[in-house]
Amino acid sequence: MAAYLTRRLLSILLVLLGITVVTFFLAQVIPIDPAVAALGENAREEQIAEFRARYGLDRPLPEQYLRYLGRLLQGDLGRSLRTGRPVAEDLAEFFPATLELALAAFLVALLLGLPAGVLASLYPNRAPDLAVRLGALVLGSTPVFFVAILLLDLLHRRLGLFPGPGRLDPFLIPPPRVTGVVSLDALLARDLTAFLDALWHLVLPALVLGSVYAALLARMVRAAMLDVLAQDYVRTAWAKGAGPARVVLGHALKNAALPILTLLGSLLGGLLSGAVLTETIFSWPGLGRYVTQSATSLDFPAVMGVTLLVGVVYSLLNLLVDLLYAWVDPRIRYA
C-alpha cells in the first residue's frame, strides 16, 4: 500500500506540473495584454511598462514560467492583478464558502438521489420507477439558474419561507473568522443565532445545487442496482428468506457501490470547483464567482491558482475513491 500511495502522489505531482504548463502557455495565446486589461485602455505607456516590469510580464516566456514555477515550489501562487493581494490569500478567503456550499449540496444529493435510485430499482417499470425517472429527467434537463431563480421567487419573495441571497443576515454581526465557514465559525463562537441563520441561508442554494446532482445520482444508482439485483446470489438471498433490508443494503447496494463511488467522487470534485451560476444568483462569495471575475479581467495568476487548486482537489478525491474501492471490495488489492 505504501508503494502504491507513493506512486499515486508522484503521479499527482506530474499532473499538477502539466496543469501549470498548459494553463501558463494557453494564457499567452489570448490576444489581449493583461497590463492594458488591468490598467484600462487610457493608461499611459509608462504606466503599462511599469506594470509589466512589476509583474515580470516583460520577461521572455520561458523565464516567466520558470520564475513562476520557482515561486510555486515555495508556496507562492503569485499576486492577483485584480485584487492586488496574494492569490493564496484570495483562495483562503473564497474557498471556505465554496466548501460549505459543496458539502451541503453533496449531502442533499445523497439524501435525495440515493434512496430514489434504490426505490426505482426495486420497482422497475412500475409507478415508483417511472416517477423517479421522470423527476430525474426534469431536474437533469432544467438549467440550474432557472431552478435557482424559480425557488428564490417562490420560497423567498412570495412565501418568505427562506432568506434571500447571502451567507448571513446583514443585520447580524458576523462571527470571528476562524475557518471561513460561517456556520462553523458561529458554532465555535457559541453564537447560536448566527449559526442557525447561516444554516438557514445555506438551505436554499444547497437544495438548488444538490437537486441537480441528485438527478444524476439517482439514475446511476438505479442502473447499478438493477444490474446487481439480477445476479444469482441476490435471488438466492431472497429465496432463503432474507429480509428486504439485508438483501438491499447488505448484498445489492454494497456490490453496486463501485460505480456509485466513482460518480460521487466526480460530483464532489465538481461541487468543490465552484458553482458559478448558483454562487452568482445567491451572492455566495465562493470560488466560482472569484474565478469568473478573474477570468473576465484577465487575472492570469488568479486563474492559474484556481486551476491548480481544482487539480489538487480532483486528484486527491480520485485517490480517496480508489482507496475506498479496496475497502468496499476486499478482492481489490494495491501493491
From TrEMBL:
Its main location: membrane. It is found in: Cell membrane. This is ABC-type dipeptide/oligopeptide/nickel transport system, permease component. The chain crosses the membrane at residues 12-30, 101-123, 130-152, 198-218, 256-282, 302-328. Keywords: Cell membrane, Membrane, Plasmid, Transmembrane, Transmembrane helix, Transport. One of its GO terms (molecular function) is dipeptide transmembrane transporter activity. Residues 95-325 form the ABC transmembrane type-1 domain. It is a multi-pass membrane protein. Belongs to the binding-protein-dependent transport system permease family. It comes from the Bacteria. GO terms for cellular component: plasma membrane. It comes from Thermus oshimai JL-2.
